[in-house]
Amino acid sequence: MLSPASPLPPPDHLSFPFALSAAAAVSPSPGTQLHALLVKNGLFPSDHYVATALLQLHAARPDDARRVFDELPRREAIHYDLVIGAYARAGMAAEGLGVFRAMFMDGVAPDAVVLTTAITACAQAGALECGEWVHRYVERSAPGLLGDAFVGSALVSMYAKCGCLEQAVRVFDGMPERNDYVWGTMVGAFAVHGRAEEDVSCLDRMAREDGVRPDGVAVLGALSACAHAGKVDDGLRLLREMSRRYGVAPGHEHYACTVDMLCRVDRLEDAVALIETMPMAPLASVWGSVLTGCRTYANVELAEVATAELGKLGAGPDEGVYVQLSNIYLDANRKDDARRVRKLIGSRGIRKVPAYSEVEVDSVVSSFVADDQAHPQRVEIWEVLRLLADQMGGELDEGETMAELS
């Protein structure tokens, strides 16, 4: 089709989007070549369909998507949505919210899809003020969207994740229609706050109030709430009765959640016994919960078993597993074993994505990465941390257990 000798007509603005979609499913390389060809043929950045397809192509690389976005002479709601979503999926919610704010400066009104994406980004970044502003915008400019399942659910989730459970309940109660997705979101909101009784009650209310039958996700949310609240007996009862009461067979995720619940309260042997009764092979999440419980309750022998089981799965344990085992050895004063595990990490070239946290202050979201040596204010940050540690009567150990192993 691209060859000058081809009998087929040359590609145009209708055929290129399909080619870009196919390229996105394969690898970035052919998509980059098509991008160059689009510019050469004058189809980018002027054509709407081509621009949309290019943004979808670069969805996994938000900076590339932003460059495409910045070149567009005319931007529509879908273009903003794609870039905001690309940033949010990459863990760069603050940048995505910047694009959302620019949308208003450009005079483009957000639709339900964009609002849902933006609210989700607010939840991910913990940007409560921004989320509240979006909520007020919807109430003022598009009140009908408050009844939209996705917009309403996004607001419920955002408020719950930002610590405002009562506001999440108010949004939920104010929705004129609530389907299984909306109910599942409310169950998840209660789960985040460990409100086990309300969660289990939701499972029964769904059918009674709205004729909605709980699905596996909703039951998982209730189990998670039991785990966070320490309601172990209630959680075990729910696992046993979920098939009969709700017609939902326990899946791997339900067993994994219950194992985690048992491990949180030092019922490690019960957790292993439950694993042995699972009708499917346990995945890494199950044995990972056991390993975490072993760290909390200083069970070295079972930690070694859990690590060995994790080693049988797929590519084997990642750095986090070995660090856990190393710390368990340190807690048990087995420093030689801890050093051996740390050397194993280095010899295998195992890498772990650094942990990070985000905080919103005056509508600005700041990110903090573990062991960040590049932050421009790292000196001031450590001074504040030392001050806080002194006030709490503790001691700040910058190297944590790594210093003990050097």
From TrEMBL:
InterPro entries: E_motif (IPR046848), PPR_At4g14850-like_plant (IPR046960), PPR_rpt (IPR002885), TPR-like_helical_dom_sf (IPR011990). This is Uncharacterized protein. Keywords: Repeat, Transit peptide. PPR repeats lie at residues 76-110. Coiled coil: none annotated. The lineage of its organism: Eukaryota, Viridiplantae, Streptophyta, Embryophyta, Tracheophyta. It comes from the Eukaryota. GO terms for molecular function: RNA binding. GO terms for biological process: RNA modification. The keyword Metal-binding does not apply.
